[in-house]
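S.,

Sequence below, as promised.
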Amino acid sequence: MITRIVKLEFQENRLEAFLEHFEQVKWSVARFPGCHGMKLIQDLKNPCVIMTYSIWENEDALENYRVSSLFQSIWPTIKPWFSAKPEAWSLKEYFNGFQ
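The prediction came back faster than expected:
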């Protein structure tokens, strides 16, 4: 399993459009084959900073999503709304204290 965190920073005037778009696609991403769930989290001090937190079966599952028609329909829509270059991390979990 891998954890994927993606940091997205939006133009202030595009944040609401992103959140509306996310509502339309969130379950398609969270239920994508190989995805074990996803969260959307927002920075408290800078609400234009949004992160996705997702768990993937393995790197192949994540790559299958990244080349999928679903991703190809999402990314070109939201990319022009960014105010900074996205950042992403694929992480190996060593401890999980969540219940």
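The two ends are 18 Å apart (CA to CA).

Coffee later?
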